[in-house]
């Protein structure tokens, strides 16, 4: 189980700024301690538990970067062509039996070890072969087309740091130095359920006043892309007692309990009260749009000193998406022991005017289109409602508008976060 601070402080201001929320997560949440060894093919997306030190140089020997001819640069005429006797042939996987002698060249192929004494390789298309000799041009710099041992990674160097969320290229690097298993943090266990008397499961009969549950499918996909192990607890009705029991039970064997719906201030919004019965809330409103009503706290775990994090997201799907990206994503990375991965917004120009309230960060759904000057501009989706799921499927990402911004005119530069970036 995770270790989370359970103290008497809870944010009681009107709205918690996004930056303060992120700082609270970093200060109050400790990563999961348990680790496990996994084979390389199962390591992608996992979080490395300890730094990996290179057990050998990569590449382990000097080798040719091209198909061509290995030579001693000192044998070359600096101003005219040089004729060298072809003294051998080296393919990848074979080693030279003897050093190259003065006045010689060795036919060599990409990846083959450099013969002793050779320091430069001519590309085969830059030379001409005449009988048993090769004629090479002047002007090639010493060391050209030669890969040095250890130029990629030096033996004993840290090649992958602890906390790295392993991508395919990281796994490839581990394979290149001969590793077969990596020690990673165990997956974050997340209990997920939706709340609301008006929500029903897709495929079941739908009363006239009911809605099919989309949020669990949205959130499960986002959780799994971030490497979490998800337990789907279905849909819970707006019953404060049942909600409290479900949250308390889920906290016994999960690191995070994640809900959607029921965290606002309406008479039927019972999730906040349920959490306060069995645990403690850190905050329940964030200065963000869409998604202001979002709650975070801690619920005691099965053993003394253990606990599970709790996050209650808004019920509207777009608000759930945005608050997942800004609240759950950093929390999940922190729980999983991953190094911080700040969201980097890329600059784009707006193709629309926009006004917003000061003091809150807003995220506007936009599509990108080429602009006349060869760049890109952001076009706002025509529907702004937090329940419009098609506004996510018909756009490319979110324009991020800072707290101190109130008015934006067409042509203004703002930050853009793509959906692929937001979903991990």
Key structural traits:
alpha+beta, Molybdenum Cofactor Biosythetic Enzyme, Chain A, Beta-clip, 30 strands
SSE layout and pairing:
Layout: E1 3-4, H1 18-28, E2 29-30, E3 35-39, E4 52-53, E5 63-64, E6 68-71, E7 82-90, E8 104-108, E9 120-123, E10 128-130, E11 133-136, E12 146-147, E13 158-160, H2 168-176, E14 181-185, E15 189-195, E16 199-200, E17 211-212, H3 215-225, E18 229-236, H4 240-250, E19 256-260, H5 271-278, E20 280-283, E21 288-289, E22 295-300, E23 307-313, H6 317-335, E24 346-350, E25 354-355, E26 361-370, E27 376-380, H7 390-393, E28 397-401, E29 407-408, E30 413-418, H8 419-422
Parallel strand pairs: 7-8, 15-18, 15-19, 16-17, 19-23, 21-26, 24-27
Antiparallel strand pairs: 1-2, 3-14, 4-13, 5-12, 6-8, 6-9, 7-11, 10-11, 20-22, 22-23, 24-30, 25-29, 26-27, 26-28, 28-30
Helix pairs in contact: 1-6, 3-6, 4-5
Kindly summarize this structure in a few lines.
This protein is α+β, with helices and mostly antiparallel strands. It has 3 domains: 3-34 and 186-335, MoaB/Mog-like domain (Molybdenum Cofactor Biosythetic Enzyme, Chain A, 3-Layer(aba) Sandwich); 63-147, Molybdopterin biosynthesis moea protein, domain 3 (Molybdopterin biosynthesis moeA protein, domain 3, Beta Complex); 346-422, MoeA, C-terminal, domain IV (Beta-clip, Beta Barrel).
